[in-house]
Amino acid sequence: MRQRYFSGIQPTGELHIGNYLGAIKSWIELQDSFEGIFGIVDYHAITEPYKPEDMPKRVFDTALDYLAAGLDPNKSILLIQSFVPEHTEMAWLLSSVTPVSWVERVPTYKEKARQLKTQVNMGLLSYPVLMAADIVLYKSTIVPVGEDQLPHLELTREIVRSFNSKYRSKYGYKYGSKSGDIFPEPQAYLAGGSRIMSLTEPMKKMSKSLGAHNYIALADPPDVIRKKLAKAVTDIGPGGGEMSPGTKNLFQLMSLFSSKETCDHFKQLYDEGNIRYSDMKQKLADDIISDLGPIRDRRLALSLRPEYIRKVLIEGSNRAREIARQTLHEAKERMGLTYF
Ligand code: AQP
């Protein structure tokens, strides 16, 4: 039997090459060796201000991106988080073993709390507990994520340890774990592109919320990709010396989308102080366009089949519920919450 894991993306906007290189590409690479369960995590997305009327299209578009990128519903499970209520129920159980001080110290919470000020809600504070629930419900042993998610994953591991030690089974092997632990401690699976920076603000990570000019979306047509890259921040001079964050980011993208010869060629020009960024950007645009081309074509074809997308999501969520229900029952049993 393939080991299982859960990973997900918030439907907070267009998926970009950061999401692709940091998470989705690993999902596809692992598809044959693991049973991946991929969530469109809408309950996470409502913890920040959003427009309710936008949500259905965002969820649909995220599913389109997942399938177009290569997720195969015959090998993997695609779900909508709010269709599987066991996620929120498990989050409540886990919150009872999670000290408030643990969630308050999470860097992304502290940063968002600074930005959102009075709009900080309980959901944002307990976001990592819901993420831990997403992961443990499927007894995930790995979680492919970008670097930004490492503090959340570390917290998941702490929550798992806390739950396991408090509710270790007296019956030991009953649930297939020799130690009597119910949940495995999940390991982060980091891809080569685990931290892609913004094109326009390269000190920050590429993000949906920074606006369309800072990212290349999986759905961007070739002319838009060229325009966005043309505006990407680089050094002012002809290269040499220490690279600025913007230039470093372009070289990282080149290492992920272009051949080794191309990377070596531009690196040599940079070292010699002879680089022309417009040439580098043009070549990088060509390579990104040809890499994303098949995804764009599949996306276009799938967008004409909304019934199929709906079917994949409903069937996937139902399959996930069967697994989630079983794990939730085990957790409740350990906690003395099964009565009849
Ligand atoms: N820039 C990035 N580089 C590498 N990986 C990234 N990921 C996100 N940005 C980058 C990875 O994508 C997965 C899904 O992320 P998410 O949408 O659930 O949340 P996020 O990290 O908050 O993504 P965004 O684009 O920054 O969304 P907003 O702006 O809405 O907050 C995760 O595995 C993440 O590591």
TrEMBL record:
An example GO biological process term is: tryptophanyl-tRNA aminoacylation
Any idea which UniProt keywords this protein has? Aminoacyl-tRNA synthetase, ATP-binding, Cytoplasm, Ligase, Nucleotide-binding, Protein biosynthesis
The record's listing under Gene3D superfamilies reads: HUPs, Tyrosyl-Transfer RNA Synthetase
* Enzyme Commission (EC) number: 6.1.1.2
> What does the UniProt entry say about where the protein is found?
Cytoplasm
Q: Does the keyword Secreted apply?
A: no
Where is L-tryptophan annotated to bind? D134
**Annotated GO CC locations:** cytoplasm
Q: Which residues bind ATP?
A: Q10, P11, T12, G18, N19, G146, E147, D148, I196, K205, M206, S207, K208, S209
Q: Which GO terms describe its molecular function?
A: ATP binding; tryptophan-tRNA ligase activity
Role summary: Catalyzes the attachment of tryptophan to tRNA(Trp).
Q: What is this protein called?
A: Tryptophan--tRNA ligase
Q: Which gene encodes it?
A: trpS
